[in-house]
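Summary of Year 1 activities. Much of the first year was spent building the evaluation harness for sequence design. The harness presents a backbone, in tokenized form, and records the residue chosen at every position. We chose the following record to illustrate the format because it has been used consistently in internal testing since the harness was completed.
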């Protein structure tokens, strides 16, 4: 960028990147000088021209006014190659992040997070987004190889704000807003529609016995099936010949199970920052408070944060600094819905799937009024003894959600202390020590009235202590020789992570309204263990530049991990890369069209040891009571002593450009990631008698090849009005190249893992449709069951195609992929005088989702569960063309089976964020002692469009499956920023 500044005799201050420099001069002058942008890279900073790796930067302006509680939420749509999924809508939860596809099948694909130069394993929710200066996403080996064995899934660098030289500054911000459910429910039938549909299923299941017999059977057994008649007519007169009695009137109408649990929440956030400095020392301290109530009652998130940073040039040859932070977080958690999709206490499942004829409350059979508990004076919840089998008989998810408790408290402390010694003008020694501490205390209570602990009540306590210690020492050399620039360093690093766990469980609640452990009389379990993970590393980097046109870089890192046996513990990871800044060539100097052009290429290898366990190379035994009353040991884990690093070989080629005075900027890139010796959880037969679902081995290779594009354009740019548009797009293809020797395939739910295909390719029964003659569900028939000369009774020929009504005879075939064809984001920013508007959309084109949530609403035999309004399009008359089979107790099981019937397009578009604000003129604020004042309104998850109403954008994960879960919230906030 070009910056014009006046140089005073006393000196002048100008900014480069995130730091500041003071430069003295002997007299006043006016000059224009090119100040090149500085980019945060692995273990340091680098001029933009010298960067040879793929490095996406997100600046603090992109985070400052968004109502987000977790910094990972800022990554959605921020740039190419980044794919995100909302892990939960629980307040304070962030996003799951994937960078350039999938590198591991069985184990983690989460990127490495680095906070102020040190590996960060704490929760991202413990970081206040207001404290973040920049986020840098490192995507290729040239950018990540200095993190070696931790970098296979990419690296996210988080840099916190520091003080700036000059007068002291006070920044205050406040937001208040509301949160509500962003993803609406699927449309479902009401009570008046439900009874005839259930009647129809009963009738069609007996139609072979004759219409009269079938009708009578359905009429006489309808209420015995559903166990509830909410209308004011006798049971055997409720539905006559498939039609609801026109005289039927509802006795009560409170069948909405979501209403008592799902509503709106309040979100408030306050941040205070004080910063400043002089020629020798800069400082910044900040306080933050966030309180967010979830749209699901009983859920919330509260966070207090404190951060202090100081950097001081105590001697001409010595610079020291510290960055200290703490966070205290409390949460009241809801059931996540992902790990327990079918649980009776999953509120998202049962507020959706409860039939529209059941109330959560008890009602008087005569008057229809809610029953009042004479002891408490409160309305009594329905215990579920008058519900069908698909309506959570004997349970009440509302009562259990309101009465049960799941509370978590986190204390987090992080500190980074450094010293930098200038040995001579070119040689520098730096050492950093980072310490992290996290204490997580969780307590749960399960009520004794209804549910899993009925009659007893139960309490659990979990206490986890996490500690990390990261110490590195770096010797660096930087020098220019005429047109040559050399930058090199060599370093050593120790990393230690420990985890201490304690658990207790008791039952038998003595006194009501007391959930502490002392109030429970029967100990059921107490357990604890300690895990330790260590890593030692030696690494170095050499960078060379010539005339600021050509740059070469090489990196290498030797890592040793305690997760592997001693003879395979060490491994080297490396990269080489280079760039050509074409715009600095003489033939492009002064070119009015091409202002910036840089070609980059790199190749290297990074690794992964992110296994679930800490000692996977050892055979383990569990200690306890395997014989009920007698202590002993039990075989617990198989092992492979030769288990070693998963390596990821990466090739990257990209082009960056700036055109028309940099009003148009962008990049295009191609990459190839080849995972070798993939860490794979090898299945073990149940007959082997080994607990768990497999053991870790190096058994496979996998490849991702992709393209990335990014474009930004200033459409209008003048003194009063500015309009910018930006878009990014990514695509990749995933292929499993090698599987376990001797193993040809692995069937995993809707996927078939086989060489030559993606691990996210669907392998499913092929749905054909509905037979117009009788409404039977049809699948393409597997050839082995088709004999044209002697067709079985469940195999038919329709228009020359062999089909079957029996799902067990259905043909399996490849059925698309969960991986989208394209994904990314686009946005626009407008500024007119003091007004501004910024919008960000995210999108996905192509790919498929297996919508099991919808499948659960499309049963052809309702037994108390809810039904989608799409069921109204069912087959009813011979010759009718429809894709919804007849309601029928005889065929419903086949119709409901997993097949391509439930696959739907994963394409979506979402308005991720919009911010509209007004910034007051600085001149009008001077008399008030205010430097800056801004008001704005901002919203997250404001709108989306997917394949059908109720389907969450992206499905909530990367593998194309859905679950009844806590979906993300829509948050709209009003904000104030003021600086003094």
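For this record, the design step produced the sequence shown next.
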């Amino acid at each position: 960028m070009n910056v014009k500044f006046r140089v005073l005799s006393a000196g002048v201050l100008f900014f480069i990147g995130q730091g500041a420099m003071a430069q003295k001069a002997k007299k006043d002058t006016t000059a224009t000088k090119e100040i090149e942008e500085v980019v945060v890279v692995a273990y340091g900073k680098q001029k933009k021209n010298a960067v040879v790796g793929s490095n996406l930067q997100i600046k603090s302006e992109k985070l400052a006014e968004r109502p987000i509680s977790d910094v990972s939420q800022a990554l959605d749509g921020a740039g190419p190659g980044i794919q995100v999924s909302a892990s939960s809508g629980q307040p304070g939860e962030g996003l799951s992040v994937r960078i350039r596809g999938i590198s591991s099948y069985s184990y983690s694909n989460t990127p490495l997070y680095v906070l102020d130069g040190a590996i960060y394993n704490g929760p991202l929710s413990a970081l206040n987004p207001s404290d973040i200066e920049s986020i840098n996403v490192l995507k290729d080996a040239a950018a990540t190889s200095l993190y070696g064995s931790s970098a296979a899934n990419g690296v996210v660098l988080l840099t916190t704000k520091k003080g700036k030289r000059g007068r002291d500054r006070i920044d205050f911000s406040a937001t208040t807003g509301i949160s509500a459910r962003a993803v609406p429910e699927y449309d479902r039938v009401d009570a008046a529609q439900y009874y005839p549909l259930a009647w129809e299923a009963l009738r069609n299941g007996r139609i072979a016995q004759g219409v009269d017999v079938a009708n009578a059977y359905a009429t006489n057994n309808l209420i015995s099936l559903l166990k509830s008649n909410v209308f004011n007519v006798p049971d055997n007169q409720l539905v006559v010949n498939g039609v609801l009695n026109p005289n039927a009137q509802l006795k009560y109408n409170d069948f909405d199970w979501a209403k008592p649990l799902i509503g709106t929440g309040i979100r408030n956030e306050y941040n205070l920052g004080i910063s400043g400095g002089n020629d020798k020392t800069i400082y910044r301290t900040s306080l933050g408070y966030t309180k967010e109530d979830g749209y699901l009652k009983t859920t919330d998130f509260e966070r207090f944060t404190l951060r202090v940073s100081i950097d001081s040039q105590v001697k001409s040859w010595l610079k020291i600094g510290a960055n200290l932070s703490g966070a205290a977080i409390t949460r009241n958690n809801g059931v996540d819905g992902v790990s327990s999709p079918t649980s009776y206490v999953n509120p998202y499942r049962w507020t959706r799937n409860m039939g529209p004829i059941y109330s959560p409350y008890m009602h008087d059979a005569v008057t229809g009024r809610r029953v009042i508990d004479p002891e408490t004076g409160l309305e009594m919840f329905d215990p579920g003894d008058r519900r069908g089998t698909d309506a959570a008989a004997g349970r009440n998810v509302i009562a259990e959600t309101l009465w049960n408790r799941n509370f978590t408290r986190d204390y987090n402390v992080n500190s980074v202390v450094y010293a930098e010694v200038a040995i001579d003008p070119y040689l520098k020694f730096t050492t950093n020590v980072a310490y992290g501490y996290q204490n997580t205390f969780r307590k749960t209570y399960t009520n004794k009235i209804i549910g899993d602990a009925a009659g007893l009540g139960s309490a659990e306590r979990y206490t986890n202590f996490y500690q990390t210690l990261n110490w590195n020492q770096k010797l660096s050399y930087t020098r220019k020789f005429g047109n040559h620039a050399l930058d090199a360093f060599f370093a050593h690093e120790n990393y230690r992570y420990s985890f201490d766990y304690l658990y207790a469980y008791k039952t038998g609640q003595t006194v009501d309204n007391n959930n502490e452990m002392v109030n429970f009389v029967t100990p059921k379990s107490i357990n604890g263990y300690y895990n330790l993970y260590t890593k030692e590393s030696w690494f170095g980097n050499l960078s060379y530049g010539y005339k600021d046109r050509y740059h070469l870089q090489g990196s290498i890192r030797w890592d040793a991990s305690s997760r592997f046996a001693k003879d395979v513990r060490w491994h080297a990871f490396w990269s080489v890369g280079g760039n050509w800044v074409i715009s600095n060539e003489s033939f492009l100097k002064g070119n009015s069209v091409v202002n910036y052009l840089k070609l980059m290429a790199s190749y290297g290898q990074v690794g992964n040891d992110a296994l679930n366990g800490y000692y996977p190379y050892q055979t383990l035994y569990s200690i306890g009571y395997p014989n009920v009353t007698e202590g002993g040991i039990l075989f617990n884990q198989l092992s492979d002593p030769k288990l070693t690093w998963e390596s990821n070989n990466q090739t990257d080629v990209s082009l960056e450009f700036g055109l028309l005075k940099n009003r148009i900027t962008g990049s295009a890139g191609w990459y190839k990631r080849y995972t070798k010796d993939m860490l794979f959880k090898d299945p073990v037969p149940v007959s082997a008698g080994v607990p768990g679902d497999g053991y870790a081995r190096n058994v496979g290779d996998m490849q991702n090849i992709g393209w990335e594009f990014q474009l930004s354009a200033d459409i209008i740019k003048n003194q009063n009005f500015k309009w910018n548009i930006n878009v990014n797009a990514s695509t990749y293809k995933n292929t499993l190249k090698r599987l376990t020797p001797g193993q040809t395939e692995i069937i995993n739910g809707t996927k078939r893992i086989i060489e030559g295909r993606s691990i996210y390719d669907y392998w499913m029964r092929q749905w054909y449709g509905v037979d117009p003659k009788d409404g039977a569900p049809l699948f393409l028939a597997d050839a082995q069951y088709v004999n044209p000369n002697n067709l079985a009774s469940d195999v038919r020929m329709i228009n020359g195609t062999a089909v079957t009504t029996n799902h067990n005879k259905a043909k399996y075939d490849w059925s698309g992929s969960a991986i989208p064809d394209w994904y990314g984001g686009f946005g626009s920013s407008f500024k007119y005088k003091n007004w501004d508007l910024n919008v960000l959309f995210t999108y996905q084109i192509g790919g498929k989702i297996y919508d099991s949530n919808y499948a659960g609403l499309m049963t052809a035999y309702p037994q108390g569960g809810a039904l989608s309004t799409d069921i109204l399009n069912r087959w009813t008359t011979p010759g009718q063309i429809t894709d919804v089979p007849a309601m029928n107790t005889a065929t419903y099981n086949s119709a409901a089976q997993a097949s391509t019937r439930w696959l739907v397009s994963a394409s979506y578009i979402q308005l991720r964020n919009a911010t509209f604000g007004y910034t007051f003129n600085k001149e009008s604020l001077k008399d008030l002692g205010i430097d800056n004042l801004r008001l704005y309104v901002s919203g997250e998850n404001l709108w989306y469009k997917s394949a059908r109403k109720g389907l969450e954008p992206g499905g909530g994960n990367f593998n194309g499956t859905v679950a009844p879960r806590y979906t993300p919230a829509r948050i709209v906030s009003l904000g104030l920023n003021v600086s003094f």
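The mean pLDDT is 91. Quantitative recovery figures across the full test set are reported in Table 2.
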